[in-house]
Design brief:
By secondary structure, the chain is of the alpha+beta class. Among the domains are: about 160 residues, PAS domain (Beta-Lactamase, 2-Layer Sandwich), CATH 3.30.450; about 220 residues, Hypothetical protein af1432, CATH 1.10.3210.10. It has 22 helices and 11 strands. The strands form 2 sheets. The chain has a 6-stranded antiparallel beta sheet with strand order 3-2-1-6-5-4. A 5-stranded antiparallel beta sheet has the order 9-8-7-11-10. A hairpin with a 2-residue loop joins strand 1 and strand 2. Helix 16 packs antiparallel against helix 17.
Amino acid sequence: MTVKHVSLRVRVAAVVALVAAVAALIMGILGMRIIRGQMLEATECAASDVVSMLAVQLDDRGFTPSRIQANPAIREQARQVLSDTLKRLAAVNSNWKSASILSPDGKEWRLVVAASHGPAGEVLHREGDVFPIEAEDPEETLEIGHSTVGWYHTDVEDWFGSATTLKDKSGIVAMGMRMSELREFFLQVLELALASLALAIVVGVVLGWWVSRRIVQPIEQVRAFAASVDAGNFKARLAEHGPPEILALMQDMNRMATSLGERDALLRRNKALTGEVRSHESRMAAFEAIEVDFAELGDLNLLMRRMLEGVVQVLPCELAVVLLGDGNRMGVSHARCGGDTELARVLLGQFCVLPDTTLSNLRSGMDHAEPRLANTGIAALSGSSHADRPALLVPLRSGGGDLLGVLLAADPRARDGSFREAFTEQDAANLRHFSTLMAMSLERQRFTDRLLTRMIRMAETRDPRETGAHVKRVSGVSMELFEAWAQRHNLRDEDAQFARTTLRTASMLHDVGKVGISDSILKKPGKLTDEEYAAMKRHTILGAALLPGDGAQDEAAREVALHHHERWDGKGYPGQVDIKSAHGDIEKLLALPLPTTGLKEYDIPLFARIVAIADVYDALSSPRAYKEAWPEAKVIETIKADAGTAFDPELVQIFVERYDRIRAAWSMHPDSANEDA
């Protein structure tokens, strides 16, 4: 039994006992008042009757005060009559202790003769004692038939008495009882009442305890049982006891708990099945979305990011990384970390050295490997919170079976975000599906890159500064700028996807027109003259002319090639030029007159405005034969200072806000990289 149960039972018992005690007390007080009143009334009536009877006896024998005073024998006889009367009354438990005959003596009553009933030698009244007369006129007191009942006082104690007039009106007969004895009787009655009260309290306590055991305790157990069931403990059962009504209630509640437990088990099973179905549907939806992206997206970076998001969602896991390279030393090209975006940013561009055994197994055709993340050789992960978590590696293989890289997933999680201790076979199968799409995307992108690289190298043979790494960096920075711009302007996904593909190609071909510029100008180490600079400006016109075609992508590539040197304030070049009039004739293109002012603000195509910032950023951040690379802070301040003059202010703001990602994209293509890869 709990403390709470005991407390409640004690309270119930106490309440019942208190109610019983209060009821008994009220009844006792009322009873005592009634008994006392009845006793006094009965005593008064009895006193009148007794003293009247005694007066008749005395009158019948002629015992008058004068005769008694005159004749001692008669006094003795009268005393004997009084004494016999008291004895008879004592035999019936009367409290009368004295009887006397008094005669008037002026304003006082004088005791003529008296008798008493009590312990031997006890003297209650002495003959000759006097008592004051209450009435103004003693004659009124001596009227025939006059009697009185009430309290009177002596020098010793208080008395209750009754008196009546003798027949000859010469005196009165009086009887008395001690007030102390009457009080003792009342005290006996009070003791009896108190004993009854105590008995009532005891009975109340016992009754209350019994009530609590029979009714209150079962009800409290029912309440505790209901709370337990409400908390989900459907295995709880009540010990069935108590009155029939409560017993039936307990049985019903036990049956209810059994039914609820069965329903809860069914609901949990349904919930688990629903979760499995939804998880399967979620995986299928993610796979479908990735396959759509694979078919529609031309931008490898965006496609890789989408795929890594799919990996984290489908497996699920906390970390997904793409490592590119076919040797032990592989570089992190893309990373996705669910709870730590800073870690994902730090990982980009880092290199890792996979253990020879792991790399050999992946090359030999093993579907996957499962080391701890700390053993993958990625320095940034060795000291992270993920270091001791499981990792899952699958190879990225080309169609010919060559190892292009590795797809790594780490730190598996349950759907609710809690840890899992290992990846499952289904996880490995899902990751292999992603790796196949990624490998195909890499091959497709590399094929496109080779075509573009060949065109770029034609320009590179003319201008040593126009390297493959340079155009890839410009393209990467341009893509990051456009991504943020598209989000700001709520561009539809399908429009953004097409624009990314277009911008990527156009940005890589922005300086292709330099193939038509003289070596003496392109390779001149010093500052160009005005005439040489005017000729150099025409590489924009030549680049646009070398990119024929009627499609939207062709038009965008021509716009970038033609206008990537325009300025926001209109002081750039070449301005509005009609290259169609030259019909692709190089001599005519070189002879076309250039406008004196360039395009201004939003007249400059968006892609050209984007490539302008990316081109200058790379030029300032990269070393050249004639200069060192500028410090990063100086590059940022220079571009910020040119907002509203050379560059679109909104794009400069995006550049500053997104600089971490821009820097990561730029750093992926150092000048020492293999440009054919």
